[in-house]
Amino acid sequence: MNAPFNPKQQTRNPFAAYVCDDNSSELLKPLVFELGWAPESVSKGGLRGAVQSLSVSASPTILFVDLADSADPLADVNSLAEVCEPGTIVIAAGNTNDVRLYRELLNSGIQDYLLKPFTADQIRDSLAQAQMMLMGPRHGMIAEDAIHLMTAVIGVRGGVGASTVASSLAWLMGENGGHSTALLDLDVHFGTGALSLDLEPGRGLTDAIDNPARIDGLFLERALVKANDKLSVLSAEAPINNPIITDGGAYFQLQEEMKGAFECTVVDVPRGMMVQHPHLFHDVQSVVLVVDLTLAATRDTIRILAWLKNNAPQAGVLVVANRVHPSLTEISRKDFENSIEREIDFMLPYDHKQAVNAAKLGKPVAEAGKTSKLGQGLAQISEKLLALVSDDPTGGESKKKASLLDELSAIFATKSKIAKK
Ligand SMILES: Nc1ncnc2c1ncn2[C@@H]1O[C@H](COP(=O)(O)OP(=O)(O)O)[C@@H](O)[C@H]1O
Ligand SMILES: [Mg+2]
Fold first, then answer.
1. What confidence tens digit (pLDDT) does each residue in 322-381 have?
2. Residue 329 confidence (pLDDT)
3. Ligand 1 residue neighbourhood (C-beta within 6 Å)
4. Which of 348, 410, 417 is closest to 161 using CA atoms?
5. Is the pTM of this model over 0.70?
6. Which domains does the chain show, CATH number per domain?
7. How wide is the angle at C-alpha 129 spanned by C-alphas 123 and 133, nearest 5°?
8. Residue in 156, 157, 164, 169 to alter for ligand 1 test, most ligand atoms within 8 A of Cβ
9. Ligand with minimal distance to 155 CA
10. What are the Cα distances from residue 285, in Å, to 151, 184, 259, 329?
11. What is the arrangement of strands in the sheet containing 181-185, beginning at the earlier edge strand?
């Protein structure tokens, strides 16, 4: 009784709709009633009404909002995000038939967009999908506890140290971040993920490729090799007399299972695999592109960055120059950056001693050379990546954004799963 008045602290209604015209409202009311919700939850006022009302009351679990009155739907949807609590599933409707707008709306976290005039069946479908999202095991837990960070590491060419970086980052996410982490080494014939950690790779990955239908949580548990309490590895030394025949379904399925079973996944993706199986990048939140300061790397960095823009527009990309030697680089940092038209995010020094020592000990460089410049650089990269999903790296503002982002990736995960079926 004595608690300070806080209008936002009410229980959430399951549903609210803000429409612009009588037709929509008449169509919606019986459907809402069918689903056991109050017909009064459908009101007029469109997007402006929604923003006004939600700024002083708790947001519903599912929100239907009519954008017909909105001059700038995208900006308005963003203002809606400011007053909506994370976890709200938003279905929008409008008169604009424009694929670009549709995609941008989905990108900003909208679950579905219905073109007006919509039919009862369309709304029914859309509401059913929203309810399915709610029942999905991940929903609602995403922002608070079940983080998942999927990072792909690509070497712009062989030998730049991508696998070295990948195993170190995976180890750091477990050790420094305290997150259960999987290292998925997709270099099926020549992978070094297990080797560099002094482990036997086992048959897990090759079995998975031979028989993707078997991949489930239990399979993962058996197939992965534990490096320590927090880090598990899936890697292979597949016989080199047989080519690998796969449509990539197994890799996708592995990623999916790992998302459920671990907090972080680091995928070591050989460059050629990226070309063969672009879908490997659909769900990654971040990409670490490992480069060296050479002419060939400059050309391919430009090409891969452009590829990522098209094939993984959702992912944050870090450019990491590795094996940087003060006098032995072909190209200066400045020239490299000018050519790729962006900055290098991290520079990791060439350190032969640490590389050899780590190999000898069978430990990731980040562990064996913890205090070296190379080790510290790697630790900084993992911190930067974890900041993407952890609570609050940049002060209060980012929390809401982060959870919207999580919502979004969950939505895309579901969508792509549905699309694949
Ligand atoms: N910063 C570094 N300094 C010195 N040697 C390195 C460094 N990073 C990686 N190496 C070495 O370079 C070689 C290639 O690394 P690897 O990670 O297998 O490359 P990739 O996966 O890109 O082909 C390995 O012998 C590794 O120990
Ligand atoms: Mg490699």
1. 999 988 889 999 999 999 999 999 999 999 999 999 999 999 999 999 999 999 999 999
2. 86
3. 155, 158-164, 192, 322-323, 348, 350-352, 355, 359, 374
4. 348
5. no
6. 15-135 (3.40.50.2300), 149-389 (3.40.50.300)
7. 145
8. 164
9. 1
10. 6, 15, 12, 31
11. 225-226, 231-234, 181-185, 264-269, 149-155, 286-291, 316-324, 346-349
Output the CA 350–ligand 1 centroid distance in Å.
9
Ligand 1: residue whose CA is nearest its atom 23: 159
Q: Is the C-alpha dihedral spanning 75, 81, 84, 88 positive or negative?
A: positive
Per-residue model confidence (pLDDT) at position 137: 46
How many whole angstroms from 168 Cα to the centroid of ligand 2? 13
Note the residue count of the chain.
421
pLDDT at 421: 42
Least Cα distance to 155 among 321, 313, 326, 359 occurs for 321
Atom of ligand 1 at shortest range from CA of 350: 3
Instruction: Give every residue of the chain whose pLDDT is below 70, as ranges.
Output: 1-11, 135-146, 390-421
